[in-house]
What we know:
This protein is of the alpha/beta class. It folds into two domains: 3-30 and 296-404, Aspartate Aminotransferase, domain 1 (Alpha-Beta Complex), CATH 3.90.1150; 48-293, Type I PLP-dependent aspartate aminotransferase-like (Major domain) (Aspartate Aminotransferase, domain 2), CATH 3.40.640.10. The protein has eleven helices and 15 strands. It has a seven-stranded mixed sheet, with helices on both faces. Strands 11-12-15-14 form a four-stranded antiparallel sheet. The chain has a two-stranded antiparallel ribbon with strand order 1-3. The chain is globular and about 70 Å long. It starts with a helix and ends in a 15-residue tail after the last helix. Bound molecules: pyridoxal-5'-phosphate.
Amino acid sequence: MTSDRFAKLDAEDPLAGLRESFELPAGKVYLDGNSLGALPRGVQERISKLLQQEWGEDLIASWNGHNWIDLPRKVGEKIAPLVGAAPGQVICTDSISVNLFKLISTALALRPGRTVVLSQEDNFPTDLYMAEGLAGLLGQERCQLRAVSANRLLSSLDEDVAVLMLTQVNFRDGRLHDMAGITKAAQAKGALVLWDLAHSAGVIPIELDNWKVDMAVGCGYKYLNGGPGAPAFLFLAQRHQDQVTQPLSGWMGHKDAFEFSPEYQPAAGMQRYLAGTPGILGMAALDAALDVFEGISLDAIRKKSSALTQCFIDQILARGLPGIRLLSPRRAEHRGSQVSLTHPQGFAISQALIERGIIVDYRAPGIIRFGFSPLYNRFTDVDRAVTALSELLRDQDYLATRFTNKAVVT
Ligand SMILES: *Cc1c(COP(=O)(O)O)cnc(C)c1O
């Protein structure tokens, strides 16, 4: 494919104009939106107003005056349509890790007598760690983590499983689960399902209500572009609400926080999933970032995402690059919005790509991840990434020692 052809695909792209809504580093190709989304311009404006007026001038009056106190609900409701949830079921708060703790606890309480949290052994580690932590706290007789390979998930569903906890798109290989089908199969065995949407919210059409999903969590700083450490979100289907409490019973989840009563009484609905005071700077940033999605269909986003990843894969395979293996599924309907390649020198290659202005990341063992965010990535970015990778493999300049030092965050 010639460079003109990539430029033509950009010219024909109905979402191309959205790139203008983002600050992006000049001259670089940013392919890490699956780890930290780019900065939406609207966030800069919102945060500077918040600093000058809301915090700087109005101070404590802003909790009511600028409705800070309502932000977790408001931002949750803004996320809800992106994941196919009717109002009253999504709240924005804490991190995914903390929200998993609340929801696994909820699931165990909703399925008394069942003790197993079933998950996938190559799930994102924090998901497994949180289940292990809860198992340690409650003891094996009340909670156990059972982590199995992907092909053993359905056959491991027995009458001990309280909840099946899975991530829709695997962070290593980008493989996409059949969320509707698995949800149905798990529920037929009496289990609840808890989906982690970290690598799918904002980039894949999700129908939490239509697929009758029980619970979900998702990330604010990946494809939703809410900024580093942005608050996460939590979904609990209406039919399960108000039946049990969650153990992180902080004052923000109390039905009357400002009564300062010594006894905890949970708020109705999603508010009981709040614990402490929301971080307003982070939440306001996510709130503003979500405006980019207004009026855009997730089908259009998914279509472009599939085209970008397919174009990248086709170019990589056509070039037959030495030592490079495609780890992600070849068929677009089986993968999320990232493409993972492996190479024995994967880490050094990822560093050499970054030096050439192609921002990717690395996951052990040997995995180079190329994340495509359809809101701002272009087909010409695909061209530049493939060209850079081909050149550095040809010249073998990734063998330089400066590419072998690992920083704390990869
Ligand atoms: C990024 C990610 C997380 C992050 O969890 P935090 O507690 O919000 O840091 C969790 N799960 C998955 C699958 C992820 O990809």
